[in-house]
Amino acid sequence: MRTIVSRLIRHKSSIPQIRFVSASSGGRYLSTDSNKIDEPFNVEEAETVHVPPPPTEKLLVLGGNGFVGSHVCKEALDRGLSVSSLSRSGRSSLQESWAARVTWHQGNLLSSDLLKDALDGVTSVISCVGGFGSNSYMYKINGTANINAIRAASEKGVKRFVYISAADFGLANYLLRGYYEGKRAAETELLTRFAYGGIILRPGFIYGTRNVGSMKIPLGVFGSPLEMVLQQAKPLNQLPLVGPLFTPPVNVESVAKVAVRAATDPVFPPGIVDVHGIQRYSQQKSR
């Protein structure tokens, strides 16, 4: 049987009944009128529908003027995204051309009103917020601040949220209890609020060139060779107690690349990505 696809011209008098009959030699055609079985129906050519391109992705980077955050902003701009950043100090102090292309917001993640304003029109968020200090302070900046951001983004209808967390370091976690408890609390909130669009990156030591005032500290001098050595020593990660100490460092550009891809690629799987996953994804071509 031959299939004929077309738009049917309906009779004005009533809603037609459609019957399918054989179109073989000497047979009958599909008809919209039970009283005119043998008459072929009229066919019009299909119309061309012009679908507008998808809207521009707008990314909000929390902590965009920090070491990791600044690399995330730059990577996102290189990918053609519209980028804004919210941080306590506002505009980045870096005198680089890309910084002028970022919309800078000054505010505190512990203030929900400022955060909601910065989230207007945002399609995805990457949080690079974290810090050290007393246990109570570390829990607040790593946990509470990020939880506030996750909840506000969820309420605003943001599609994807990427959180730069941290790898476990075994016994070292007890020395920085507030830091890790805050990180894990934020992770739990993210996986609850963004079950299908929440991605957690858990790098270990992140190396690259850090700007400290007017000085540039090239951490890659020892970070890069150490990464290559520890990549080959992956089985050591399984050793009890001390295994996590063999987690390889990772380049800040790799972290930024994977974070931006996770925030914008709808097929990037949700969940936790460890340092080995970050290294693997960073070597793949972006979609």
Automatic annotation (TrEMBL):
Residues 63-206 form the NAD(P)-binding domain. GO terms for molecular function: protein-containing complex binding. Pfam families: NAD_binding_10. It comes from the Eukaryota. InterPro entries: ComplexI_NDUFA9_subunit (IPR051207), NAD(P)-bd_dom (IPR016040), NAD(P)-bd_dom_sf (IPR036291). GO terms for cellular component: mitochondrion. This is NAD(P)-binding domain-containing protein. It comes from Arabis nemorensis.
